[in-house]
Amino acid sequence: MAPPKKSTARPRAAARPAPYKIKDVSEITGVSRETIRFYINEGLLPPPEKSARNMGWYTQHHIDLLQLIQKLQREQFLPLKAIKSLVHGSSDFEFTTQQEGVLAQIRNQLSFGSRGLLPSGKPGAIARDLGLTRKELKEFDDIGLTLAKDATVSDIEVAELWIKLKKNGLSEARGFTPKDLGYLVELVDFAVQAELRLFEQKIQTMSPDEGTRLSEVVIPTLSRVFAILHERRLGMFIERYLAQRSESRVPARRVASAAARGSADGRASTRRSKV
Questions:
Q1: How many Å apart are CA 29 and CA 61, to the nearest integer?
Q2: Which of 149, 153, 145 is nearest to 118 (CA)?
Q3: How far apart are CA 156 and CA 77, in angstroms?
Q4: How many CB atoms lie within 10 A of CB 66?
Q5: Residues 197 and 216 reside in one and the same domain
Q6: Is 242 part of a structural domain of the chain?
């Protein structure tokens, strides 16, 4: 019996665990690599699959999740913590059916407001007309604001306000860039979580008319209260700081004055002794 022939076929290379590198995911979704890594660290995205060479590979699921996260941020204005709860099917909140109906009503009214609409011009062209650099565009994207293809009127408004800040002292020459607005995004996330908690605990029933007033009157009123408190708190802090600095300088001035008097007395005594 003839011996079996040896196979001449080359061993098949190990299949990639997933089809995309982070560079591919960034190009497909328009989300920067830094933002993708940030979402992974925050638990919004699952970690990539690792190859034998420790290369990270991403799946279509990552792309779908990224597109969903961007959609919820831009169209529903949801904070990242709320998005995480929605994406992963777990929530710290337990809303009643009626409360969920009111939330859906508020969402629809916010979405159909002028700030949720897409701009008439192409976002890229608008960004260039505003004079934004590529670095600024990237930093806006990194903090959750965007002037990419799905930018809304509110995104353009934020960019215009940034230009206003630049022209009035917060310039790049002084080290200011859009990433310095990141603390505002964090403040808003915290405020939204607190507002949702109050809604969950205190508003069990609400008519459609009350839901309309909640979005058209209550939310803008709370935003105005925040602006007033912000300015007042900043003024109070500056006033206290300057008062403390002024008080700390009083002893130093007294010591200097006493030293000056002592020096003058010494010179006068010297002159008298010479006479």
A1: 12
A2: 153
A3: 14
A4: 22
A5: no
A6: yes
Q: 179-227: per-residue pLDDT in tens?
A: 899 888 878 877 888 888 888 888 878 888 888 888 889 999 999 999 9
CA distance 168 to 173: 12
Alpha-carbon distance 6 to 240, whole Å? 88
- Asked if residue 12 is part of any domain, the answer here is no
Q: Where are the alpha helices (DSSP H) in the chain?
A: 22-29, 33-41, 60-76, 80-87, 97-111, 123-130, 134-142, 153-167, 182-202, 208-213, 219-274
The pTM assigned to this predicted structure is 0.57
Tell me: the pLDDT tens digits for 250-267?
666 665 666 666 665 556
- Residue 235: give the domain boundaries: 206-247
Map 133-168 to HEC letters: CHHHHHHHHHCCCCCCCCCCHHHHHHHHHHHHHHHC
Tokens of 30: 């328009």
CB environment 81-105: b (16+ within 10 A), e (fewer) = bbbbeebeeeeeeebeeebeebbeb
Alpha-carbon span 204 to 199, nearest angstrom: 8
Phi, psi (deg, nearest 5) at residue 52: -60, -30
- The band of 122, judged by pLDDT with boundaries at 50, 70 and 90, is low
Asked if residues 178 and 162 have their Cβ atoms less than 8 Å apart, the reply is yes
Instruction: Give domain status of residue 137, yes or no.
Output: yes
User: Are 210 and 124 within one domain?
Assistant: no
